[in-house]
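A further point concerns the way the authors explain their paired sequence and structure data. An entry of this sort, consisting of the sequence and the corresponding backbone structure tokens, reads as follows:
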Amino acid sequence: MDTPDPAGDSHCQDQVRRHDRDRFLCAQFAPAEARADLAVLHAFNLEVAQVRETVTEPLIGRMRLQWWRDMLDRIAAGDPPVHPVAQPLAGVMARHGLSRPLLDALIDGREADLAEGPPATLAELEAYADATAGGLAVLALEILGVRDGDTVAAARRVGVAWALTGLIRAVPFQAARGWAMLPADLCAEAGVHPPTPGQNRAALGTVTAAMAL
């Protein structure tokens, strides 16, 4: 069984502490021996979640996501690339038997971040949240050794709620850049075309309230 990589673990914990404070704090309630591996998983999530914010062209973003798919193939083949997240992730996958379909789905879900338009419906947005934050919650359970059906189902629901909450919190940040991950049908009903910093707050509130129900 692979042993933890202290250098890689330290890098991952630092990244999560700085860029995903909520998950970092939640992980402190996990058993001490699981925290480093959770940080590695969450650092991997950060790598794919931040693609949209770090590229200027969707094609470049898709290339970066493909790199991570290829990285998972290399890990499966026993040849992880030299990378401060990929190498410790290889160890975590080996130690806990992380579900490859969930990892793939997490990457695939991030393709939506690069789409030209917002999700068409709330159901489409919830499917995105399930593939990303929902799947991530299930992967975290696998690290904790929890795989029973009821707990997995509950974790997925919590993950979806977490993602929708995060998207609502991000509306001011995203609107300042002329876009937001808000359902197109709800935006149309509220007269939000597209979200912008000066838009009627009541209209945006109508959209976010529907998402929060």
User: Anything to note?
Assistant: The chain has a mean pLDDT of 91. The chain has twelve helices and no strands.
